[in-house]
Amino acid sequence: MKIYTQRLEQIPSDSTVHSTVETVQLNFDTRQKSRFRATLNSGTDIGVDLPRTGILRSGSYIATEQGDILKVEAKAEHLMQVTAPTEFDLLKAAYHLGNRHVPLMLTPTALYFEPDHVLAEMVKGLGLNVSEVQHPFEPESGAYAQHAHDHRLSPIKAIHAHAHH
Q1: 41: Cβ–Cβ under 8 A, 6 or more apart, which residues?
Q2: Cα(25)–Cα(74) distance, integer angstroms
Q3: C-beta separation of 143 from 160 below 8 A
Q4: In which band, very low, low, confident or very high, does the pLDDT at 157 lie, cut at 50, 70 and 90?
Q5: Quick check: is 142 in a domain?
């Protein structure tokens, strides 16, 4: 069994490497762990034993000591999707959900969180739409985490779902 022990900041630009990189789809819960077993899309079982330095994000690469490279993708999972008639309504929902300290994924047109009927009812009470969907989950890592931002998406992206005073 291959054991992946290294996080890669980038993979070599050699085109032969890209053609041999395998992929694994993992849910958010698994991508938060530093040690786990998984099955590649090809059906091969692997082990992962990484340093505890953060969450594996979709698009991350990990490697074995022998140089085998693996691309990690976010697996679609059961989530609650929040949509709203206006961006401001969606912004208000992000604020209220953030005050509950739940992992929250922000997009320009929707918010996503793990199933929770109490939170769903709260958001519905604000006049927003809540539905259950299958979608990859890539929640915000928080205002103090070290990660890159893509502010081209929307002003909503700038909210880190953690607004306390």
Answers
A1: 22, 23, 24, 25
A2: 6
A3: yes
A4: very low
A5: no
Q: Tens of pLDDT along 78-117?
A: 999 999 999 999 999 999 999 999 999 999 999 999 999 9
CA distance 34 to 32: 7
Residue 129: domain span: 76-136
Where in 20-125 does DSSP place strands (E)? 22-26, 35-39, 45-49, 61-63, 69-74, 76-83, 105-106, 111-113
Nearest to 154 by CA among 104, 96, 86, 97: 86
Beta bridge mates, 63? 6, 69
H helical segments located in the chain: 15-20, 28-31, 87-98, 117-125
Is residue 21 a contact partner of residue 11, using CB atoms and an 8 Å limit?
yes
Q: 91 and 34: one domain?
A: no
100 plus 131 within the same structural domain: yes
In a domain, 96, yes or no: yes
Q: In terms of residues, how long is the chain?
A: 165
Residue 145 lies in a domain: no
Q: What percentage of the chain exceeds 90 in pLDDT?
A: 68
- Output the six-digit token pair for 76: 């679609």
